[in-house]
Amino acid sequence: MKQKFIEDLYFGRYRPFERPRTLNPARDAIEQQIDAETRYFTADMRDDDCRRFLDLSDLYTASDSFDQMDAFASGLQLGARFMHAILAEDESEVVPCSRL
To answer: What is the reported pTM?
Structure first.
C-alpha cells in the first residue's frame, strides 16, 4: 500500500487541483445569492459602472486565490513532512518546521 501510494504520487496520478467539485447545498445557495445580488446591482448601473463593479468582483476572486494557493502549498508541505516522518528510518532525521 505504501509503495503504491508513493509511486502514484511520484508519477502524478494524484492531482488535487483536478478534483471534482463536491456537492454542497450551502455553497450552492451562497453562489446563487451572489449571482442574484450581482444581477440586482448591475441591472440599473450605467455600462461604465457595471464594468467597474464586475472588475471589482474579479479582483476579490483573484485576491482570494492567493489565500487558497497558500493554503494548498502549506497542506502539501505538511503532507510531504508527514510522508518523510513515516518513511524516515531514523526519527532524528525529521526536521521540525516552524511555519506549520
So the answer is: 0.55
